[in-house]
Specification:
Blueprint (H helix, E strand, L loop, with lengths): L1 E10 L2 E10 L10 E6 L8 E3 L1 H9 L3 E2 L1 H10 L1 H17 L5 H7 L1
């Protein structure tokens, strides 16, 4: 199974994480498939950067984000945009055109 998770880099007492796609069997700092973002928890502004297109690509393929990465994706707005896009497509499919005859009957 493919997971989207964090990889710790940086020095002691100054953590810096990369958001990456990796096989669930590989170790935390081991082999990975692709880096899709980074997260610096000690910075106040600009601490989270995510390549939204690549994140959506891997989520579409079935990659499962860990709990922490899921909250980071939610904070970056990636999951919200996916949700709104999916609902928008479903709403378009359910829309029924209104005919002019029904307007004349009600008037």
């Amino acid at each position: 199974m493919v997971k989207i998770r964090l990889r710790r880099v940086g020095r002691k007492n100054a953590p810096f994480y990369r958001i990456l796609v990796a096989d669930s069997q590989s170790p935390r700092d081991g082999k990975f498939i692709e880096i899709i973002g980074q997260y610096a928890p000690r910075k106040s502004e600009g601490s989270l950067q995510v390549n939204e297109a690549r994140a959506n690509y891997w989520l579409d393929l079935g990659a499962q984000p860990t709990d922490t990465v899921r909250s980071l994706l939610r904070r970056a707005g990636v999951l919200r945009k996916r949700h709104e896009q999916r609902l928008g497509i479903e709403r378009k499919g359910e829309a029924v055109p209104v005919s002019e005859k029904s307007e004349e009957v009600t008037a």
